[in-house]
């Protein structure tokens, strides 16, 4: 399969110019990193005394508990987002105009509102109406409101990309609209959009760091801040360790999304899309 570039292939002069620009950028970044290292080294940030508190196992237990709380909030938020996002995708594709419009308004509103603002809403406004919950659930509710809107739109796009012939084949076999969506369209949409869904998990995990503003939920950033409070000499070091923890999880999720995308491309090449007769036979077997 051949692809056409979006721009003209650069000639010899353009390639030389690009090489010069790349070398200049690399040199500038290296210079900036060296200056940052020198500044931190002058203030003793790389000294043994600054990192000595991290020889205590208790600090790593605290950091590990904070990271576990981040993962727990992201996992619960993702499960709820998948549930409500699927229902939202059904609503966005509904034949009823009021349902479709209501779901579209919900999607546009909560996908555009900053997650931090949603977190302030859940933690400050909801308690005034008598809904008193632990900070964990205020965080999960904010994550679910934001992510379900995004996932609903993703699944809607995935369902729309499926050839309409499969819907017609299901209807010819007597499937209702809901059963067609449940048994035929949704599984294919989940499969095709799995890399994007994992990428959304990355966004959710990073969003859990906003729980720092709640104060009562001990997540990774809060754990690092607590360590910096007791060991003021090691505040920057604690923040660096927390940043590395976030990076490792996000990189792992990013690699998973890349692997899923490559696997999906290989399957699309190896397995041609079934025609309507094959889909009909599969539906009949179910």
From TrEMBL:
It holds the Pfam family BPD_transp_1. GO terms for cellular component: ATP-binding cassette (ABC) transporter complex. One of its GO terms (biological process) is amino acid transport. It is found in: Cell membrane. GO terms for molecular function: transmembrane transporter activity. PROSITE patterns: ABC_TM1. Keywords: Cell membrane, Membrane, Transmembrane, Transmembrane helix, Transport. It is a multi-pass membrane protein. Residues 67-257 form the ABC transmembrane type-1 domain. The keyword Transport applies. The chain crosses the membrane at residues 20-37, 71-93, 105-130, 136-155, 197-218, 238-261. Belongs to the binding-protein-dependent transport system permease family. NCBIfam families: HEQRo_perm_3TM (TIGR01726). This is Glutamate transport system permease protein.
């Amino acid at each position: 399969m051949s692809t056409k570039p979006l721009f003209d292939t650069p000639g010899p002069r353009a390639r030389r110019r690009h090489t010069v620009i790349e070398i200049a950028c690399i040199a500038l970044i290296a210079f900036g990193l060296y200056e940052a290292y020198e500044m931190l080294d002058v203030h003793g940030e790389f000294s043994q005394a600054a990192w000595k508190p991290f020889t205590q196992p208790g600090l790593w237990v605290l950091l590990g508990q904070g990271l576990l709380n981040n993962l727990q909030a992201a996992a619960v938020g993702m499960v709820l987002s998948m549930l409500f996002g699927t229902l939202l995708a059904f609503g966005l594709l509904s034949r009823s105009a009021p349902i479709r419009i209501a779901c579209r308004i919900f999607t546009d509103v909560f996908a555009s509102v900053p997650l931090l603002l949603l977190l302030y809403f859940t933690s400050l406004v909801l308690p005034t109406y008598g809904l008193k919950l632990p900070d964990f659930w205020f965080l999960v509710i904010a994550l679910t409101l934001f992510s379900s809107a995004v996932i609903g739109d993703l699944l809607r796009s995935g369902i729309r990309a499926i050839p309409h012939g499969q819907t017609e084949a299901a209807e010819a076999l007597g499937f209702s609209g809901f059963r067609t969506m449940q048994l035929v369209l949704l599984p294919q949409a989940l499969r095709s959009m799995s890399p994007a869904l994992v990428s959304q998990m990355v966004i959710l995990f990073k969003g859990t760091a906003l729980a720092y503003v709640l104060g009562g939920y001990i997540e990774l950033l809060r754990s690092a801040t607590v360590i910096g409070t007791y060991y003021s000499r090691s505040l920057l070091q604690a923040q660096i360790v927390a940043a590395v923890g976030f990076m490792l999880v996000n990189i792992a999720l990013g690699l998973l999304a890349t692997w899923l995308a490559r696997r999906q491309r290989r399957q699309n090449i190896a397995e041609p899309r079934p025609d309507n007769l094959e889909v009909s036979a599969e539906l009949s077997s179910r």
